[in-house]
């Protein structure tokens, strides 16, 4: 909220020459691309600098970032809530596992199939759910997450029951000369970049504007001709699709699925991750991915007996210091450094 | 009902849940006219506009140029060319002015036409052109109201519904707004229904006026007649003549 208040208080810059402003905008756009390119360069060099375990950790950061991209679309951009995002992640993970286990489908094909399955399921569940709002919607999505684990355990012949399924990982082609962990990292990176570009394209389209309108003012969006239930359902299905794609890569990377990896806590951790990372921002999912991957581990190190307590306290601290998430905090730091530099 | 009415409303009932607000409203608006809906607080003026744009369920008959509009969804009505500037403006604060305007043309296809309409709307509201890339939340109240009306014009509406455009604005800004609404009406022959507390201003631009009280039309007539009617002024419009 405070972010919005800031916007209203900002004095209106009148009469700035239009040409200068246009140039500044082009410069800002170019700077964004430079930052993105630099980030990508760092990301590409990472697996050659780190030990395999760390490489694995960063691979998982990318996996979570893809899932959070979807959640960001739904929560940050369309303004709906989901406590069941982990269920769609699990659908992608199990879908991939079953395809690999039973039909020996090549790894590359499991990803689009898993994403499509999650999309279809999101559409089917979103159709009734998205007629609800607020707490009712939260409750229904939570029910989806709770429902899933017993379901996975029940159909033992397909899902492997409580024991789960163990699968082969995609092997690096000989020409790359990469080790397995490095190859998996680059696969996750490729999926993450593709997912990022896709989300960006979606949000800059007419449909993206419709989602923002629904988030900012439902009544006004409605009289403008935006069909609320249609766009909410679509956002829900897309968010499920990203989660499904992330789940698929998860299975490639881990090579093992079991029901208890996808308990309700996964959904809640993901929601916490995107809120902490920064709702509605482009860097939010990546920062959230770092949070989801590393903070539970750090909590464990701080106090072995009560990692949950430390995890909770860390969330509270971040939200207290940075109510618009880590992305918002980074933006604020950047602005104030610029101000300091300008003064000198 | 007269045959040449552009908007014809007959026996319109509407409300929220158990609370019924409109108890059989009948009114007609001629093509290309500005029609003012006056009345005290709680008379059902906003509810009437919401009923006309499909935001709430209604009973009764609403016809726009002969096409039945009652019980259709808001997006269907937007496609029929009904643009509603809601109470409190409904600005999408975090979006830019241009994004707000483009959302006004959401149900229309064709990029070129929408681009031309951006120019057309900015000609009516020159201040918006200088603010296109600015976040709508940073606009002043008057500018936001201009944005709200401009956004509605992006639809190329056949029927424009304005809910209290003067709310919370300085008198000078309000006068400017009404002047522009008049200009739009004259240049594009857009039919306008305006709900207004400031009866004096509304009667200044309108040809027709209806006085609404407790969910019923209690008086209809030409704007001059209603303005001249001292009795009406005292009982419904709350000012002395």
UniProtKB/TrEMBL annotation, chain A:
- Give the Pfam families listed for this entry: BPD_transp_2 (PF02653)
Cited CDD domains: TM_PBP1_LivM_like
How is it placed in the membrane, per its record? Answer: Multi-pass membrane protein
Annotated GO MF terms: branched-chain amino acid transmembrane transporter activity
| InterPro entries for this protein | ABC_transp_permease, LivM-like
* Entry GO CC: plasma membrane
Q: List membrane-spanning regions.
A: 33-50, 56-75, 82-100, 106-127, 134-152, 183-203, 234-255, 261-279, 286-303, 309-334
Descriptive protein name: Branched-chain amino acid transport system permease protein
Output the lineage of the source organism: Bacteria, Bacillati, Actinomycetota, Actinomycetes, Streptosporangiales
From TrEMBL, chain B:
Gene3D superfamilies (UniProt xref): P-loop containing nucleotide triphosphate hydrolases (3.40.50.300)
Q: What molecular functions are annotated in GO for this chain?
A: ATP binding; ATP hydrolysis activity; branched-chain amino acid transmembrane transporter activity
**What PROSITE patterns has UniProt attached to this entry?**
ABC_TRANSPORTER_1, ABC_TRANSPORTER_2
ABC transporter domain segment(s): 7-239
Q: Write one Pfam family the protein is assigned to.
A: ABC_tran
Membrane-crossing segments per the record: none
Alphabetized, the UniProt keywords read: Amino-acid transport, ATP-binding, Nucleotide-binding, Transport
- Which residue spans adopt a coiled-coil conformation according to this UniProt entry? none
Please name the SMART domains in this protein's record. AAA
Give GO BP annotations, semicolon-separated. L-amino acid transport
Family, as annotated? Belongs to the ABC transporter superfamily.
PANTHER family, alphabetized:
HIGH-AFFINITY BRANCHED-CHAIN AMINO ACID TRANSPORT ATP-BINDING PROTEIN LIVF (PTHR43820:SF4)
> Under which name does UniProt file this protein?
Branched-chain amino acid transport system ATP-binding protein
């Amino acid at each position: 909220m405070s972010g919005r208040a800031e916007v209203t208080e900002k004095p209106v810059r009148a009469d700035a020459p239009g040409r200068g402003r246009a140039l500044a905008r082009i410069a800002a756009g170019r700077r964004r691309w430079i930052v993105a390119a630099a980030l990508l360069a760092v990301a590409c060099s990472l697996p050659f600098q780190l030990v395999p375990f760390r490489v694995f950790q960063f691979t998982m950061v990318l996996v979570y970032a893809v899932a959070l991209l979807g959640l960001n679309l739904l929560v940050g951009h369309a303004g709906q809530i989901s406590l069941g995002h982990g269920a769609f992640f699990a659908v992608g993970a199990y879908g991939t596992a079953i395809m690999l286990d039973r039909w020996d489908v090549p790894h590359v094909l499991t990803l689009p199939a898993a994403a499509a399955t999650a999309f279809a399921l999101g559409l089917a569940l979103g159709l009734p759910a998205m007629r609800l709002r607020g707490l009712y919607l939260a409750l229904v999505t939570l029910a989806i997450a709770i429902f899933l684990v017993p379901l996975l355990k029940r159909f033992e012949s397909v899902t492997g029951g409580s024991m789960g399924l163990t699968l082969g990982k995609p092997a690096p082609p000989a020409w790359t000369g990469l080790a397995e962990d490095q190859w998996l990292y680059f696969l996750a990176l490729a999926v993450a970049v593709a997912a990022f570009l896709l989300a960006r394209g979606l949000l800059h389209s007419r449909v993206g504007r419709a989602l923002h309108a629904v988030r900012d003012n439902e009544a006004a969006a409605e009289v403008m001709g935006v069909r609320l239930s249609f766009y909410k359902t679509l956002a829900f299905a897309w968010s499920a699709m990203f989660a499904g794609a992330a789940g698929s890569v998860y299975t490639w990377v881990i090579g093992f699925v079991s029901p208890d990896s996808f308990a309700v806590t996964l959904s809640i951790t993901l929601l916490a991750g995107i809120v902490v990372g920064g709702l509605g921002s482009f860097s939010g999912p990546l920062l959230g991915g770092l949070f989801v991957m590393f903070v539970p581990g750090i909590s464990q190190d701080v106090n072995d007996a009560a990692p949950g307590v430390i995890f909770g306290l860390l969330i509270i601290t971040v939200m207290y210091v940075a109510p618009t998430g880590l992305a918002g905090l980074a933006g604020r730091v950047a602005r104030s450094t610029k101000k300091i530099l300008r003064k000198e | 009902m007269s045959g040449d009415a552009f908007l014809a409303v007959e026996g319109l009932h509407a409300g929220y849940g158990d609370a019924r607000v409109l108890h059989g409203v009948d009114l007609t608006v001629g093509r290309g006219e500005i029609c003012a809906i006056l009345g005290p607080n709680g008379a059902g003026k906003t509810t009437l506009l919401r009923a006309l744009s499909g935001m709430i369920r209604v009973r009764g008959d609403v016809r726009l140029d002969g096409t039945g509009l009652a019980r259709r969804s808001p997006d269907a009505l937007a496609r029929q060319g009904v643009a509603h500037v809601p109470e409190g403006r409904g600005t999408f604060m975090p979006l830019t002015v241009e994004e707000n305007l483009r959302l006004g043309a959401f149900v229309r296809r064709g990029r070129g036409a929408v681009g031309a309409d951006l120019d057309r709307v900015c000609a009516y509201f020159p201040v918006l052109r200088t603010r296109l890339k600015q976040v709508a939340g940073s606009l002043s109240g008057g500018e936001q109201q201009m944005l709200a009306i401009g956004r509605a014009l992006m639809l190329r509406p056949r029927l424009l519904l304005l809910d209290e455009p003067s709310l919370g604005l300085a008198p000078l800004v309000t006068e400017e707004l009404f002047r522009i609404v008049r200009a739009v009406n004259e240049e594009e022959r857009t039919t306008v229904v305006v709900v207004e507390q400031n009866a004096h201003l509304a009667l200044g631009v309108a040809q027709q006026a209806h006085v609404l009280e407790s969910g019923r039309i209690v008086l209809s007539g030409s704007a001059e007649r209603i303005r001249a009617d001292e009795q009406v002024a005292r009982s419904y419009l709350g000012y002395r003549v």
